[in-house]
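Can anyone check this?
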Amino acid sequence: MKGEQERERRVKMPGTPLRKLPYIDVLVVAEKHTVAKAIANILAEGRIFREYIYGVPAYFFSRKNRLWCCLGLKGHLLDFDFEEAYNSWKQVDPRTLFFVDPVKVIRPENLRYVHALQTLGRRAREVILALDADVEGEAIAFEVVEIVKRVNPHATFKRAWFSALTREDILTAFENLRKPNPLFANKVFSRMIIDLTIGAAFTRLLTLAVERNRFKLPRGMFLSYGPCQSPVLFLVVKRALERENFQKKKYYTLIALIEKEGIVYKAEYTGEKIYDKEKAEKLYKELSREKEAEVVQAKYSKVSVKPPIPLNTIDLERDCSKFLDIRAKETLSLAEKLYQHGLISYPRTETTIYPPTLNLRKIASLFSSHPIYGPYVSSQILLKPVIVPTKGRDDDKAHPPIYPIKSVQLDYVRKTLGGKACKIYDYVVRRFLATLSDPAFVEKQLVIFRIGGLNFKITGIRVLDEGFYKIYPFGRPSEKPLAYFKVGERTRILSIKLVQRTTPPPPYLSEAELLRLMRVHGIGTDATMQEHIHTNIKRKYFLIRGKKCIPTKLGKSVALTLSEIVPEIVSPEVRGKIESWLTQISEGKADPAQIVKEVKEQFLQYFDKLRKNENYLAEKLIKALVEMNDEYAEDIKGRESSRRAYSGKGTRSRRSH
């Protein structure tokens, strides 16, 4: 700990008299252990003592002649659930859940954190809520307030708001403490109540509909519905259905091989697709006699390519999926580790505009001596008299865009957090530097030839000035430069080819494109979008293979059957509307209880409509489950057969030796 001596003393709980712990002037509660440790390192004036309270590390130190303690949690301490009497799926009508108010319960996996918080909170005069600076962090802050107040009603509470674990950011946050914002917390709690009620009621209905029709699900399996999860599934299934229903058509086109300066170019016919084979063959026969092509247009346009805008969470997840082949859920998890290790700013943000208070030159100068980024920073950024960054449109008023806050060797990141985290760190650094860089310039090239009265074209691209591409190669165009043609010149035709092609179906949704659509429709938040994708994969509704989201038969059946009976419950637009209502809560424009009531009433109507069609629903789902079981059995059988064959060969081989 920054060269200071550290003393460890384990406090045995329960049984050890609590009087051994001192009274605390200031208790700082962070969302994670690594953040609590980092804050202690920054704030401490002297030695830091680490104690273990119920197995949770707490950091004691002195600051301004007061005793401080930093405690790290592990996300949400409380959750919403129904009282025990309503948790029997078979004895309680799922419809009843719409009329029951869920209660807050302690998450079992975080019980020791609650005990540690109660133990320290009982002895604290002031509590500083240093949770993550977003609406989720604000909700956890109010959970902390609720838990501490139960054991210490006299404690006072203040909020520290920061977006990076730098000394400057932490000190500024603790010098400018604010009140916790109940509007942000109410938004989160309202969403949790809505999602629990709707998700539980519809999940039980789907599962019980199948079981009541005498189909036994495998132990531990259930058919889940989620008000965010299911619209995401519908987007994936909708694209897959468009792909399946696509009618392929054969068509014909003409290719002219044209030579200039020893280079052969493929010029393609610019007219409409030719579906009539006889017409295509007739054109081909006529053009086969032609020996020269006349240039009728030669356009070489210099185009400016703007650098990327500052980075937010969704773009980070999309780009890491697209360019680095790292799944969205893993990307966010690794980005949070980079943040906790003080390497990047807080990774959950919707903002794409740097605040004027952010010293961009100072951040860039951190990398001036870096072996990889240093030469570029020194020559292309720091020499500018004024740094003008790119600018997006979004500002969540909570966090700046994601940017690097510490310059380290990539080998250090690789050894500390792994290869994928190293790639993400490298991407964040390059993206930040690109936003401070000059544009690139490319030359877009288009040449049109006239052959026998028909037009043929070739296109090319040449990078004239790399600009930001020097540091940010992601999305850099592959150069295919053309020779320079002049209007009126005639070039030799080597041959004409008649080519048969087939119209391609639309591709499956990529994870990057799915994230974009979720953002467009307002499904989930920057912090939860990847979770909704992961839930569908966990439920075996779709899988991601080769960056493509491919629905299973069960996933298709769930999405299409629900859409057929009650389209609103899988509609991305309906979920987007709910998110807009929740946002009104955080802005103080709507009453949380009223929003929850209205959403419940709306989905109760959908529930009743679905229940009326329960037998039809069960029939469709059971059919998909049977087909999936058959496929699974065949797959197991095939693997078993291969294993036996391999085992047999191995046995014979060993005997021969």
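Reply from J.R.: I decoded it. Residues 614-656 form the longest helix (43 residues).
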